[in-house]
Amino acid sequence: MQPIVHKDKLNNELAVGDFVVYPNRNSLVFGRVMKLNSKMVGVYPVLEKRYGDRNSNRYPRDLVRLDPADMTWYLLKNPT
């Protein structure tokens, strides 16, 4: 069986543990890739801890991978 390879909106390869941004209703959600399924990517929201914010499956074309340094900078600049 071949390994699962998914690419984001900018054609970057996704891996488990990558930080990503994805749309949810009218906003963007910062998340982390938890699982690579055959057609979708399992992501978990990193910052938002509201009811209903659980692991969800998203299409890879709806995700944009973030550099870990950019995610760290965002967390330092915008404490929650």
Structural notes for this entry:
This protein is mainly beta and 80 residues long. It has one domain (6-77): SH3 type barrels (Roll). It has one helix at residues 68-77; strands at 6-7, 13-14, 19-24, 27-36, 41-45, 56-58, 64-66. The strands form two sheets. The chain has a five-stranded antiparallel β-sheet. Strands 1-2 form a two-stranded antiparallel sheet. Strand 4 and strand 5 form a beta hairpin. The relative contact order is 0.24.
Tally of separate domains = 1
Distance between the termini: 42 Å
Q: Please state how the strands of the largest beta sheet are arranged side by side.
A: 6-5-4-3-7
Question: What is the tally of beta strands?
Answer: 7
Helical segment count: 1
Share of β-strand residues: 35-45%
**Elements, N to C (H/E):** EEEEEEEH
Can you tell me the CATH topology? SH3 type barrels
CATH class: Mainly Beta
